[in-house]
Each structure stands twice: as C-alpha cells, then as structure tokens.
Amino acid sequence: MSGTVKRVLLAKPRGYCAGVDRAVEAVELALEQHGAPVYVRKQIVHNRHVVETLEARGAIFVDETDEVPTGALVVFSAHGVSPAVHAQAAERELRTIDATCPLVTKVHHEAKRFAREDYDILLVGHHGHEEVEGTAGEAPQHIQLVETADDVANVTVRDPDKVIWLSQTTLSVDETMDTVRALRERFPSLQNPPSDDICYATQNRQVAVKAMAARCDLVLVVGSTNSSNSVRLVEVALQAGAGASYLIDYAREIDDAWLDGVETVGVTSGASVPEVLVRGVLDTLADHGFGTVEEITTAEETLTFSLPRELRPSRASR
Question: Span 174-182, mean pLDDT?
C-alpha cells in the first residue's frame, strides 16, 4: 500500500453569495409573515435542494405570473424580470416581492440608460437564461444577445461608434473576455460597461478554483445543472489543469470510480449552494479515506444586501 495521504483542497470563497442569501431569506420571511402559500416566479435561485426545501415549507414555484391566483403574493427570483412581467403582475393585482439581486438590477439600469442614449447594446449571455430575458426585456429594440465569440460575425449595428457591451452576471470571466475581444475586433469603438457586470462572487469562485485546479486529480463542484455559475466552475477547473471535474447536487451522486487512483480532490460550490451540501460531500470523501482537508483561500467576502423593501420592518414597528 502506498503511504500517500489522500487529501481534499477546499475552495474559499464558495457557496452562497450575498444576492442568493437575500433571495432565499426573502422567501423564508414571506412565508413567516404571510403564511403559505407564497408563489415564486421561476426558481428563486438555481439550486435543487433550496427549491425542494422551500416547497416543503409552502412555496409554490411557477413559470409565469398567469399561474398565480389573482391577488396572491408572488416573489420574483434573484435573476430578475422584465418590465413586461411587472406589468402582468399589476394587471392581475398580485402582491409582489422583488428578490432580484442588486447586481442584476445594476445591469438593468445600465441597459435602460444606454437605450435612452440610443446605443446598440450587445448583451453577452446564454439564450433562455432568466437573467438574460429580464435584462433584454428592459430595452428589446436596442439589445442583441451574443452567446460566444463565434456569434460575433453575425452581429450588425446601426452606428459602429455607438456600441456598448453588457453581460450576464454569472458567466466565465475568461470566456466573456474572449467574446468581448472578438467584438472589439469588429467594432473598435466598442465601449465597456460603466462597472464590471460579472458578479464579484462568480469571479471569486472562479479565481479560487483556478488557484487549486492544477494540484487536483479531481474537482467536485456542488451545484445544479441549471446553475450557470456552477457549470462554469467545472469548465474553469478543467481549463486550469484539473485531471477531471464533475458537477453534483448531492454527495450521493459521487461515483466511486471517479476516486480510483486519485490522491487530491478539489471541492467547491456554486453561488446558490448551501454549505450543508458541501459538508455532505466532505463527509463522503472522508469515508473514502480523504480525511485531510486544506482550505484554499483567495478572497474574503463581507458584502451583504438589505432585504427587499416589502419585507423590511416599517418605521412604526421599530
């Protein structure tokens, strides 16, 4: 038997970001304050465990506002919604709580501002993602979606000197900049967003994975398949030199064959993943002999967001 110590490198930061924490708490508080059921348009955050846990407490997840009974309470997810969705909710006299991440709201404000100034806006993002649909809905006549550098050849603009790019907040930083470089080759006057659109948490989690991936035979990313930032972490791990990388929702999904011949396992989690799921993975790895855990810290996160105004205590009750 080899005397090699099996070990885990645990990325930090990982898991919940400030926007996810705020959105999940918004649904929990809505249930406490108003009682079940509380309707939620789309998944509040892209994590299976979170959604199932909230469903057990009385949250009802729907795809569109027309599935919500007239006059009922509905929470808008962290990914944001278009003005048309707000209008539909008003028409149905729904009581709304907007749990859109403030960093997504920032991109919405940028889209409205540059549309008012009559720019062509090139939105780097994934077709069909709720965040992209919400942002594009702010200025549909001005926004074109650009998914990858390969799409750049098909982009047309009215005035090449009046073009700006914005992005979905949960993308891979490297892939986004590849697309932006291709856009700038076609449109040399392309302007950058006023401030970075890719979320601080997305960037931090990618940096942490890059710092450890080359030392890992295997990187396990805890997250759901519809979580853009979690899927990106698998890609980043492989690009940064990990021997293999897999996305899992739960520890029970770990295939024993993945651990054959492995000495170092990297573990991280997407920005919508509660820490309890990571702990489950660490416990399972310990059962397989990976009992040594070394935390790889590349940043400390202290940012918090205030709750949606509909859930803040009124001045009279303080």
Answer: 95
Tell me if residue 310 is catalytic.
no
In three-state secondary structure terms, 145 is strand
Residue 315's pLDDT is 47
Q: For residue 218, give the nearest of 74, 2, 8, 25 by alpha carbon.
A: 8
Backbone angles phi, psi at 124, to 5 degrees: -85, 120
CB 98 within 8 Å of CB 308? yes
Element (H, E) at 124: strand 120-124
pLDDT at res. 1: 41
Q: Which pTM was predicted? A: 0.94
The annotation status of 306 as a binding-site residue, yes or no, is: no
Q: Compute CA 101 distance to the chain's CA centroid, rounded to the nearest angstrom.
A: 10
- Rounded Cα distance between 190 and 199, Å, is 21
Check the annotation: does 216 bind a ligand. Answer: no
Is 272 marked as a binding-site residue?
yes
- Render pLDDT for 209-241 as a digit per residue (tens, 0 to 9): 999 999 999 999 999 999 999 999 999 999 999
**110, 131, 133, 138: which is the annotated catalytic residue?**
131
Q: How far apart are CA 73 and CA 81, in angstroms?
A: 16
Q: In Å, how far are 143, 152, 171, 182, 226 from 186, measured between CA atoms?
A: 17, 8, 22, 7, 32
Does residue 316 surpass a pLDDT of 80?
no
Q: 173 burial class (0-12, 13-18, 19+ CB within 10 angstroms)?
A: middle
What pLDDT score was predicted for residue 120?
Answer: 98
Please provide the size of the chain in residues: 318
135 is in an annotated binding site: no
pLDDT in tens, 267-297: 999 999 999 999 999 999 999 999 999 999 9
47 labeled binding residue:
no
What's the pLDDT score for residue 314? 63
Report helix, strand and coil shares of the chain as percent, to nearest 5: 40, 20, 40
- Residues in CB range of 156: below 8 A, 6 or more apart: none
What residue type is 155 in one-letter code? Answer: V
